[in-house]
Design brief:
Chain lengths: 82, 543
C-alpha cells in the first residue's frame, strides 16, 4: 500500500537517486559531518560545557550586564567621592 | 578606566566573527542568486518545451546543490559566537535580534528546505509547472532567509522600534514594523541581495566562458551566458541604485561612516565626491596636514548624493569629533558626558531599586531616559574613537564602487558578443569573465567592510560600543575556537571548491547523449549551432 502512496514513492525514488549518484553520496556525507560537528560536538558538547558564559539565572545575567555597563562610570563616581 | 575591558578578548572576538562571516559569505551569493537563474532557464523550458533548457536548468541546479549542501548550516557557527563571545550584546539586543532570526527559521528555512527536495528529486515526478513553482519558492525562500538576517543587521546600524528597559538591561521591541520596514533594512536587503545576483551571474558567465574556451557544451554555455549576462546587467544597474539609497541613509544616520568613506575631515557645503585619491599617510583627526596626497574630485556630488542638495553641508570627521556649533553638531566630548550621565543614572536606578527607594529610582530613570540616546558614548575613552578606520573604509568603498561600475561594462560587452555570436573569438573577454567572478566576491566583501568596519566603534549604533558587547570569558577560549572554526570552515570551503570544480569539469549529465531518443544535441551540433568553425575561426550569427 505504501508503495502506491505518491509521497512515499517520491521519497523512495529520492533515496534511490542519492544511492545511485556518487556526488550525492559525497554531499550526504558532508551534511552528516556537519550535523555531527555543528550540533553534536560544538552545540551539544563544547559550547555548553566549556565556552558558554555561566549565569545562574536571568536575574543574575541582568545584574552582570548592568554591572558591566555601569562599572566604569561607577568607578568614576567613587573617585569623585574620594 | 580601561582595566575592566580585556582588549585581547574584544579583538579576537571581532577577528573571529569577521573570519567566520567572510567564509560563510562565500556560500551565500550562489545559494541566493543561482536559484533565480535556474528558475529563468526552467521557465523557458516550460514555455518552449525545448529539452536543452531543461538540461541547462538541471546543470545549474546541480552546481547550486553542491553549494547548498556544503554551505548550509555554516551560519550556525555565527549563532554560537553570539552566545559565547558576544553575551552582553546578545542579552541587550536579544529581543530585537532574536525575532528576525526566529522568523527566518520558521518561515524562510522551512519554505526553502521543503521545496528544495521537489526541486532536486521532482523532475519527471511532479508536473512541470509544479516543479517550476518549487524552484521559484526555493529562490523566494533563500531571499527571505537573507531578508531576516539583513533586517537584524540593519537594526544594528539604525536602531529603531525599541525601548530600553533599565530593569532588565534589554532593548525590547515595541514596533516590529518599524524594525522590518526601516529604510536601512529595505536598502540593505535590496543592495545585498542584488549583489548576490551579480555574483551568481558572474559564476554562470565564468563557467560558461570556460566551456567556450575549452570548446565544450557550447549550446549550454552560450544560452547560459545570455541568461547570466542579462540577469547580471539588470541587477548590476539596480545594484548601483540601491547603493545610492544605502549611501543616502548612511549620510542621514551614520555621518561618521560617511566621513570615513569619503576621507572627509573638514565638513563643507557643496562637498565634492572623491572619485579616487591617495590619503595622506598618517593623517589623523584633528591634525592640520592635507587630507590627500592627490585626489580626483567631482564637485558638489557628495552633497547631492548624501542630502539630495548640491549645496548641502556634509560634516567631516573633525566636525563630528570636535563639534560644529554653526551646523548644530554636538562634539563627541559632549556626547560622552551625556552618555556618562545616562550610565550613572542607570547605576543609580539599580541602586535605588535595590534599596527600595522608589522616588530616587524614578528620578534616576528620568535622567537616564533624557540621556539614553547617548548611552553608548559614555563608554568611550576618547572623542576621536567615534571615527572608524578611515583608509580601510575609504579604499574598500572605492574597490566596491569601481568594480561595480566595471561589472556593468563587462556584462554589456559579454551580452553583446554572445548575442552576436562572436564571443568565442574574444578569449580575453572570456578570461575577463572568469576573473570577474572572484572580483565580484572581492567587491561584495569590500562592501561588507564598509558596512561593518564603518559602523565601529559600535555594535549598536550610538548605543553599545563593540568593547562592551563581549562576554566575560577568557580570551584564550576565543583564540582556541578561532582556530577551530577556521579549520572547520576551511575544510568545507576546500571541499566546495574541489567538488564544484570536478562537477564543472565533468559538465552536465548525459550531455551529448540521447538517453531517451530525445533531442539532446551533441557537442558537435553545439559547435555548429554556436557558429563555431574550427578551421576558419569565423563565427556565424546565431540567436
Amino acid at each position: 500500500m505504501a508503495k502506491d502512496n505518491p509521497v512515499c514513492r517520491f521519497f523512495t525514488d529520492a533515496f534511490r537517486a542519492v544511492r545511485a549518484s556518487r556526488l550525492a553520496r559525497i554531499l550526504l556525507l558532508i551534511l552528516l559531518f556537519k550535523v555531527i560537528m555543528f550540533y553534536g560536538f560544538l552545540k551539544g558538547f563544547l559550547f555548553p560545557r566549556y565556552l558558554k558564559p555561566r549565569y545562574e539565572s536571568e536575574e543574575h545575567r541582568t545584574e552582570q550586564v548592568i554591572q558591566d555597563l555601569t562599572r566604569k562610570t561607577k568607578s568614576e563616581r567613587d573617585d569623585r567621592a574620594h | 578606566m580601561t582595566e575592566h575591558i580585556d582588549m585581547a578578548l574584544v579583538n579576537w572576538s571581532r577577528g573571529q566573527f569577521a573570519m567566520t562571516a567572510f567564509i560563510h559569505w562565500f556560500f551565500i551569493p550562489l545559494t541566493i542568486g543561482l536559484t533565480y537563474i535556474i528558475a529563468i532557464a526552467e521557465t523557458i523550458y516550460v514555455r518552449t518545451g525545448d529539452k536543452e533548457w531543461e538540461r541547462i536548468a538541471k546543470f545549474w541546479a546541480k552546481l547550486f546543490g553542491i553549494n547548498f549542501a556544503i554551505g548550509v548550516g555554516t551560519g550556525i557557527i555565527l549563532g554560537l559566537e553570539f552566545g559565547t563571545n558576544w553575551a552582553n550584546y546578545s542579552w541587550i539586543s536579544g529581543d530585537i535580534f532574536g525575532a528576525p532570526l526566529a522568523a527566518e527559521g520558521i518561515m524562510a528555512f522551512f519554505l526553502e528546505s521543503t521545496f528544495i527536495a521537489v526541486m532536486f528529486f521532482g523532475w519527471g515526478k511532479v508536473s512541470k509547472r509544479f516543479h517550476l513553482l518549487s524552484t521559484y519558492l526555493v529562490a523566494f525562500g533563500a531571499s527571505l532567509s537573507a531578508l531576516w538576517i539583513l533586517v537584524a543587521n540593519a537594526w544594528m546600524n539604525y536602531p529603531v522600534g525599541m525601548v530600553f528597559n533599565p530593569d532588565t538591561a534589554r532593548h525590547e521591541m515595541v514596533d516590529f514594523w518599524s524594525v522590518l520596514l526601516s529604510p536601512f533594512a529595505i536598502n540593505k536587503f535590496l543592495h545585498t541581495i542584488t549583489s548576490c545576483f551579480v555574483i551568481a551571474s558572474f559564476f554562470v558567465v565564468a563557467v560558461s566562458g570556460w566551456y567556450i574556451i575549452k570548446k565544450r557544451n557550447l549550446l549550454l554555455a552560450r544560452r547560459s551566458m545570455v541568461i547570466g549576462a542579462s540577469f547580471g546587467l539588470v541587477t548590476s544597474i539596480f545594484l548601483t541604485l540601491t547603493g545610492d539609497g544605502s549611501a543616502y541613509y548612511v549620510a542621514q544616520k551614520q555621518p561618521a561612516k560617511l566621513a570615513a568613506m569619503e576621507a572627509l575631515y573638514d565638513g563643507e557645503e557643496g562637498a565634492g565626491l572623491v572619485a579616487f585619491g591617495l590619503i595622506q599617510p598618517g593623517k589623523q583627526v584633528g591634525d592640520d596636514r592635507n587630507d590627500f596626497v592627490f585626489k580626483i574630485e567631482i564637485p558638489r556630488l557628495l552633497s547631492m548624493l548624501g542630502y539630495r542638495d548640491f549645496n548641502a553641508f556634509v560634516p567631516g570627521a573633525n566636525d563630528l569629533v570636535y563639534g560644529n556649533e554653526q551646523q548644530g553638531i554636538l562634539s563627541a566630548s559632549e556626547k560622552i558626558d551625556r552618555g556618562r550621565t545616562a550610565l550613572n543614572a542607570l547605576a543609580g536606578f539599580k541602586e535605588a531599586r535595590a534599596a527600595g527607594d522608589a522616588a530616587a529610582a524614578d528620578r534616576a530613570r528620568e535622567v537616564f531616559e533624557e540621556n539614553y540616546y547617548y548611552m553608548g558614548y559614555g563608554h568611550l575613552f576618547d572623542p576621536e574613537s567615534i571615527i572608524p578606520n578611515v583608509p580601510f573604509i575609504f579604499y574598500s568603498f572605492r574597490i566596491m564602487v569601481m568594480l561595480g561600475f566595471a561589472f556593468i561594462v563587462l556584462f554589456i560587452a559579454v551580452l553583446y558578443m554572445v548575442v552576436t555570436g562572436t564571443i568565442h573569438r574574444h578569449r580575453w573577454l572570456l578570461w575577463l569573465g572568469i576573473l570577474a567572478f572572484p572580483l565580484a566576491f572581492l567587491a561584495s566583501m569590500a562592501g561588507w567592510v564598509v558596512a561593518e568596519v564603518g559602523r565601529q566603534p559600535w555594535t549598536i549604533q550610538g548605543l553599545l560600543p563593540t568593547m562592551m558587547s563581549t562576554s566575560n570569558i577568557n580570551a584564550n577560549a576565543v583564540i582556541l575556537t578561532f582556530w577551530l572554526f577556521l579549520a572547520l570552515l576551511m575544510v568545507l570551503l576546500v571541499a566546495e571548491m574541489r567538488i564544484m570544480l570536478t562537477a564543472i569539469r565533468k559538465g552536465p549529465d548525459n550531455y551529448g547523449k540521447d538517453p531517451g531518443g530525445a533531442t539532446g544535441p551533441s557537442d558537435d551540433n553545439n559547435k555548429e549551432t554556436m557558429g563555431y568553425n574550427h578551421t576558419s575561426k569565423e563565427g556565424g550569427r546565431h540567436v
